[in-house]
Amino acid sequence: LGAITEAADVYRGLGKAAKQDKPAGQHDVFICHASEDKDLVVRPLAEELRQRGLRVWYDEFELRIGDSLRRKIDRGLAQCRFGIVVLSPAFFEKEWPQRELDGLVSRETAEGSQMILPIWHNVSREDVLRYSPPLADKLARSTATTSIGVIAAEVAEVAGQPN
User: Fold this and answer.
1) Residue 100 bears catalytic tag
2) For residue 92, which of 132, 126, 136, 57 has the smallest C-alpha distance?
């Protein structure tokens, strides 16, 4: 009887694990950023999120020599559940991260769900408001007042639960 109970417990555990599995190729979060923000914000955040068990699409984790940048980024944008957008002066000046943001906005609009998680780095609400009034309306975290660890904990709380 003990062996049957033990086998049933293992079976139930396998069922729970299977339900928690994420579809192949899907990431919990895609990190949209300017390369100038990697060292202080993006890389530490990406590593912290990984340590918390999230599947993170971050260029240094995903891109390999010979990859098509556009195709890999498009796939990451299409298959992520949430998009972290690190808004900074460098972000506002660069075309590529703005295109990534456009992709996230398109998905959010089409799917009717919240998926953009903004982080402000060296910018004020007024800076974001001038750049994009709808983005300024979203509750964000600022690296000026919130540590990377706390930001990662909040993102993990939101993005750690499959839809």
Assistant:
1) yes
2) 132
